[in-house]
Structures are given as structure tokens and as C-alpha cells.
Write a structure and sequence with these properties.
By secondary structure, the protein is of the alpha+beta class. It has six helices and 22 strands. Helices cover 15% and strands 30% of the residues.
Amino acid sequence: MLLVMSETHPADRAEDPQGDDPPWWSRPGREPADDPFASPTDAADTAHLPSEPYGHGAEWVFAGQDPLDRPRPDTPRRRYGGGLLAACVALALLVGGGAGAVAGYVVADRNQSDVHDENASLGSAPAHAVDRPPDSVAGIAARLLPSVVKIDVSGGGQAGSGSGFVIRVDGYILTNNHVAELAGDSGQIEVRFNDNSAAGARVVGADSRSDLAVIKVEPGDMPDAAKAVTLGNSDDVQVGDPVVAIGSPLGLSGTVTSGIVSAKNRTVVAGGEQSGQESYINAIQTDAAINPGNSGGPLVNSSAQVIGVNSAIATIPGGGLGGTQEGNIGVGFAIPANQARRIAEELIRNGKADRPIIGVSLDVQFDGEGARISGEGEVSEAPVQANGPADRAGLRPGDVITALDGRPITNSDDLIVAIGAHAPGDQVTLTVKRGNETKDYKLTLGTAPAD
């Protein structure tokens, strides 16, 4: 699986020995660099799914863009019938041109009247633009575009880009961790607003577990039109609701796409290679077009409220010439706004975000239905943390958790994502199977300090 981060700095293009290498815009899974003759690169960094979610081998990947950290293979691609195709096309053009010439001669010969009208007029354009309803895609875009930014990041010899949006008028901008993390401790972040003004930014805080980060520009660098977005209530989202995605796919800033909410509470596990920490997302799924570079941009409802942070897309291994179809296939994922709100507030306050826990060690090898607590002696530490939330509620080693607040739990990733969608201190109900008995246990989520 692939972590797709964007590359924006130019690279020298190797001459194609065949002379017929297609342009970057026609290559599946490729992105343009700033220099249109730059070498495209394959996507880097993996993300993973528990198993093939749709029965076709789909994989979750971040919707960032690909860092140029590896050389392009020197071996030229094999061509299949390129010369024959070119010859056929040329022949078709010659035949078509000849036919057109004959037809033109016949028409001209039969119609000797003047075909020009000196007084021709098709009328003038309407004096006023057509009004757009505020809940239309155009109306939503007009309200949100000034608040959505393109983010260019460089560090460690790599460069990438993504998207973000203003959450406070004093310069705070929310984006994905996998967009901001490329800067590291000494890299640079540039924010470009919709009016094409640019400003330097610094990281306020980041949380790899939730894949969220907050960056900040100086208040004086904020355009007047860049207002703070309204974060909606993602719990109110329903499947089928219309949504709009805004961001900078493939570096194309200010891009607007639309679709619907396709599903809720999707378990998405992505990343892990670059940061060393996987991101667990209780995702909103959408068919609005999301491509590399959309990461960190808003998913917006018909009231122009942000209900999610676009973060990941599904890919099809083996699709396209590059071996994986990395563009939009109508399956994108966003972090719910309610979780993003809580994490962003903590990052602004402390630079870090606490993580909710139940205080158990999970058996990731368990292949049954549910999430199994490790048995005694199976892990180095105690399977159930002494005096932790699960211990106080009465859970034991070997118990299998099959639901959380009525939401079915099919594996350990499901449980981690469902818990992560809550905040420390929330009360939840776990449905637990012990032997042949199933019972509900109420517990209050504990806190794991941020790393």
C-alpha cells in the first residue's frame, strides 16, 4: 500500500530512448512536478488495510502527494505495437483528409451562393451574472474557497504538498499530520491562499495517531477574505448527504469536487512507514473526487460547514501502467469533524493530543469475530492493566469484545478506531463474549499521554 505525498520540486527528465513516452498527465498514478518536464516518480510509503474491504484488493492510502526520494528506473519501458499504432493513425489521417477534400469540393461546386452575412450577430451576453443558491456547489465554493489553502512542505531533501483550511482568524490552519510531518524539525512550510498570496508557517502541534496537525501563519499574513470555517457536527451526517471537497489535488489549488456521503464509521488504517506510527481513522466515506494533494482539505456539507478532513483514498493494486491505480476511484475518506475539533483544540493548547484507552493488550493474531484481549502469558505485560478502565469494569484476559456502544467490532483495528473516535473520560458500553456467555460492560475511557 502507498503513502501518496506530493513532489513539487523539479527534477531533470531522462531522455526516453523510445522517444514516445506519454506526457505526465496521461500516466496513471503520476503527478506533475512544478517543472512540466520533471521526472514523475512512483508513490512512496505504505498504508494498509486489515483485509480486502470490497473483495477486489482495494487499499487505503493517504491522499497526499509523493516525495521524490528515489531515482527513476533507468530501464526503458517496453512498448507494445507503438510503431504500428502510429502508422495506422497516420494512414487514417491521410484517408480522412482525402475524403474531406473530395467532400468539400462537391459541396463548393453545388453551392455557389455567398455563405457570409455582413450583419451577423448572436446577441450580447446577459448584463448580470446568474445568482447561485447558497446551498449549491457554486454557493458553497464561493464561501469556502478563501479559507482553504495549498500547503507546500520541504525538508530532509524531499518536498511535498497538500491542503488545509483556516480554523482561527489569528492564523491557525488545520491539515493532516502526513502533510506537515515532512518538514521535520528544520524544514519549511509555505501556505498559499486563494488570492495567491503566500506566507511561511510553523507547526503548532501534530498527532500521527489521528493524522491531524495544526500549523500557524502570522495574523498579519492572513488575507481579509480568509475567514475561519465553521466546524459542523459530524455525528449528524447521514449516508446520502451531499458534500463538497475542496483542496489542491496534484497541486491544482482551489479545486472543488462534489458527491455524497457514501458510508460512515469506516475503519481505515493508513501510513506507518514515514512516521513510524499508523493512523487510525473512523472515517466518513465519500465519492466526491479526492486525489493526491487533497489531504488536509475540508469535506463540506450543504450548509457550508466542514464535516470532515480529507485524508485517504482507496487504490486498486495492479491497476494502470504503474502497477497501482492511485487516482480517484470514487472511494475517499475523511476524518470526522468532531474528532478533528477535539484534537485541534488539544494541539493548540499543548502541542500534543491525549489518546483514549481501555487499558488492555489485544491479540492481533486472533482470526475470530471480534477483538480478543490477550491471554495470560501471551504478552510481556499484563493483558489487562491493573486498575485500568477494563479492569475496573470486570474484563479479563481472553475476553472477546464484539461491540462498542452497539457498533459491531470484527477485529482489533475496529476496536482501536471506535475507541479513538471518543475522548478520554467518555463512558462507553462494551459487549463482551466470555466462553458461551455474552455480557455488556460499562466503562469510562482512560487517558494515554501523548507520545
